[in-house]
Design goal:
Blueprint lengths: L16 E2 L2 E5 L2 E4 L9 E9 L2 E14 L2 E6 L11 E9 L1 E4 L6 E4 L15 E4 L10 E2 L4 E2 L4 H6 L2 E2 L6 E3 L5 H11 L7 E10 L1 H10 L1 H5 L3 E7 L6 H18 L4 E7 L1 H14 L13 H9 L4 E2 L5 E9 L8 H9 L2 E4 L2 H5 L12 E2 L2 H4 L9 H25 L6 H18 L9 H12 L12 H6 L6
Parallel strand pairs: 9-16, 14-19, 14-20, 15-16, 15-17, 17-19
Antiparallel strand pairs: 1-7, 2-3, 3-6, 4-5, 4-7, 5-6, 8-10, 11-18, 12-13, 20-21
């Protein structure tokens, strides 16, 4: 699905039912002899038996050309037959109700409740494709979103209005980390909501996510959209758009700070590739469509802040890198669009550290907009710089020790080895349900920094060092 486009033809006549289904191809349905149908227009697909409608599915127009309309069917085309299929076009882009009624609900990837509750209603409707933000109305991201994860809050601070992805590989607890962040993140005392869009999960993973987020959902602070591996693949293209549409209304109309977690964007990209192949489009890198970059940007760029409104949309995409290849099209293009990355490392995971974040490979380019004096704590930025610089030196020492042995290291180098151990044990490692306050996290940073001799703390001003004396054994 590319950016919203408008057909030059007039709007379709409402309630006109088309029966000329020319072809069913994968998740696509081709309708012939149409007139007045526009691109990105929503459609209702009905199957009939003996002239009576027996089932209803939903779709979106991908392309219109010379009387033919290509419709992607969200529920898939399995068990459809051209002779018994009827299509009605709405004359408008796909819209959903928006409002606070989404909070506290669990829905499938199409936004239909699966929690036993009533259908979701709203005070207004909004197009799931979204509306571009006027660049002149954008405010730069500012102020932190505190996740309760020390390695993120201290070293790669997430900022309100930022898009900061988590890069992982198969077998690492990225979904568990994403659910923990969604369960415990806050924006201080300001209204805060979470929209969690899960795509392509196994049923076991879906159950685990629901259990982790149960408390936040019960508090009316969370919308959970679940697209499982058994659901139609085409549904995954719609799931993040519904999530972002709901988030935009909560943020820019109701004044909430909203965190949108999108997991797993690799599953989304694979669904996009499947639709592209069914359409017969010319493939790009690794058979992904050539418009993958613009499609991902149409999602990620829906975050931000608008001048004059109190809310914000912060996006945390989660993606798995096939074979750990960071040059794979999905992480590669995501890296171009977003403002940094949080990288999970297999070697850290192998040492029993949770979350297995590699701080030196991770980066928040907007951290200085959300941390420091007046935002977090006066010592935050300088302390983070010192820890990262010391960790880089410790890694060099560790590599040297593998060659010459630890016995050949001088006393200062030995201190750096101790620093690396304490860094992972005291700061990075934490329980899967542990939420650390920012002051607690930064105090742990000082405990780690004080493992080194004072002369090695060259990036910390002497007054700060004097204010945080090392703990005597």
């Amino acid at each position: 699905m590319t950016h919203p486009r408008v057909s030059p033809t007039a709007p379709a006549t409402l309630n006109v039912e088309y029966s000329d289904v020319v072809e069913l191809r994968g998740p696509l349905l081709v309708v012939g002899d149409v007139s007045g149908v526009g691109w990105d227009e929503s459609a209702v697909i009905r199957t009939t038996a003996d002239g009576v409608h027996t089932a209803v599915r939903h779709g979106l127009v991908l392309e219109v050309d010379r009387g033919l309309a290509v419709v992607q069917v969200f529920e898939g085309t399995d068990e459809l037959a051209p002779s018994s299929t009827r299509v009605t076009f709405s004359g408008n882009p796909l819209r959903i109700p928006v409002g606070p009624g989404w909070l506290g609900r669990t829905c499938n990837g199409r936004g239909e409740p699966i929690d036993g509750g009533p259908p979701i209603s709203g005070t207004a409707t909004a197009a799931v494709a979204g509306n571009p933000l006027n660049p002149t109305r954008r405010d730069p991201p500012a102020e932190p979103v505190l996740t309760g994860i020390s390695a993120i809050d201290a070293l790669t601070t997430l900022v309100r209005g930022q898009k900061l992805p988590i890069f992982s590989v198969a077998g690492l607890p990225h979904l568990e980390l994403a659910a923990q962040i969604a369960a415990q993140s806050t924006a201080g005392d300001e209204p805060f909501s979470v929209v969690f869009a899960a795509m392509g999960l196994t049923h076991a993973d879906a159950d685990a996510v629901r259990a982790t987020l149960e408390e936040r959902s019960a508090a009316g602070e969370l919308l959970l959209l679940l697209n499982t591996a058994g659901d139609p693949v085409i549904e995954r293209i719609l799931t993040p758009r519904i999530a972002l549409t709901v988030a935009e209304h909560l943020a820019f109309e109701l004044g909430h700070h909203v965190l949108v977690v999108l997991a797993d964007m690799t599953s989304y990209a694979e669904a996009l590739r499947e639709v592209s192949a069914a359409r017969g489009e010319m493939p790009g890198r690794r058979a992904y469509p050539g418009y993958l970059y613009s499609d991902l940007a149409s999602l990620y760029e829906r975050c931000g802040r608008i001048r004059g409104t109190p809310g914000s949309v912060t996006v945390l995409p989660v993606l798995t890198m096939p074979a750990g290849d960071i040059t794979h099209p999905v992480p590669d293009l995501t890296g171009y669009i977003t403002e940094g990355q949080i990288v999970l490392a297999p070697d850290v995971h192998a040492r029993g550290i949770y979350p297995p974040i590699d701080p030196l490979a991770s980066l928040s380019r907007l951290m200085r907009h959300g941390a420091g004096p007046g935002r977090t704590r006066e010592d935050h930025l300088e302390l983070a710089d010192q820890l990262l610089a010391s960790l880089a030196r410790a890694r060099q020492v560790r590599e040297l020790a593998e060659i010459v042995g630890t016995a050949a290291l001088n006393a200062t180098d030995q201190c750096y080895l101790d620093f690396a151990t304490e860094f992972e044990k005291l700061l990075v490692n934490q329980q899967r349900d542990e939420r650390r306050a920012l002051d607690q996290t930064l105090d742990r940073c000082w405990d780690v920094a004080n493992v080194l001799p004072t002369r090695e703390l060259t990036m910390l001003p002497p007054p700060l060092i004097a204010a945080h004396p090392r703990t005597e054994e």
